[in-house]
Amino acid sequence: MKANRISIFMALIMLLITAGVSAQNFDMLIKGGHLIDSKNGIDKVSDVAIKDGKIAEVSSNISANKAKKVIDATGLFVSPGLLDIHSHNFHGTEADAYLSNSYSALPPDGFSFRSGVTTIVDVGGAGWRNFRQFKEQVIDRSKTRVLSFLNIVGSGMKGGTIEQNVADMDPKLTAMVAKQYPDHVVGVKLAHYSGFDWTPTEKAVEAGKLADIPVMIDFGHSEPELSLEKLFMEHVDGRTPVVGDDGKVHDFVFAAQKRGIIFDVGHGGGSFRFDQAVPAMKQGFKPNTISTDLHTGSMNGGMKDIVNVMSKFLNMGMTVKEVVEQTTWSSAKAIKREDLGHLSVGAVADVAILNLRKGDFGFIDVTKKKMKGDQKLECELTIREGNVVYDLNGLATEPWDK
Q: What domains, with CATH codes, occur in the chain?
């Protein structure tokens, strides 16, 4: 009789243990953070549950007992993993090859997760001739999701005379490679062409149309300078000053944005200036997306990282909701990857947890001029496909003596 009681008691214990385990429906739960998810219209305190690398539930109050790991995000902002849609990551060891398999480009994982970026887009490093090498060397070896704008020049962004080779600008072959790798190629890039000639622009646009993907133009290198207005209104996009000598944003810039041209920040080491950005913002001209133009020439200058660039726009009058939207959902739409940039149930669990610090900060542009600010974003934690890949202050980590 006593043995039977012991057996029944042990069975009850096992039942309770099994019930406790089964009650933990989620691998991870982020509780109490201010969630910004522009696709789903969320801008409030909400909990986010993750299971099997996907978003499993988003609601105002999810029980902590349902998760194996709970992250307390009280007082912090929770957003989809950030997308940096202008970067240079075809790193390698080829001499004098600039941003195509050479030293000026950067390995993604060293510069992504620590700033909340889970998707990074190399723009123009590889062309149709060497994209496969880029994929095998960088994309396939990175924990960061790496996408690509194919250079219209077949050899990619190798600098100098190679980027002036109009004969190597092949729209059909560029589009063909883009279609071969639809999961990785999201656009076409023209960069650094210095001739007084619209042909390279036309070839890049043709490739974009053939593959049905966006086109990015690094404009303003030609001598004499080609018309920015003509580029905006007749071709695509450009990079020369949008604010004139009179301190006013050109009328055609507003018209171009209204027409559907996407204006990305692309800070870099030579593009972002406060004497352009501040008056533009005051006149109501805001960028559609925010990115870094990350490479060895920008990472230690005024640019630093994507949250630093976002912080500059916060201090020029944008809201946290706006800068998060422009680095998540707006950027995802710009590259036609609407599977990214949001935290819908079933979406990949790429998440950034950001801290908005208050204090006395300084921000630098590419001319080494400073703007003061009183708020600054900092990445606390990054999750990629449901796994913590960066944790600044141990939010997802148990105390050593527990």
A: 82-334 (3.20.20.140)
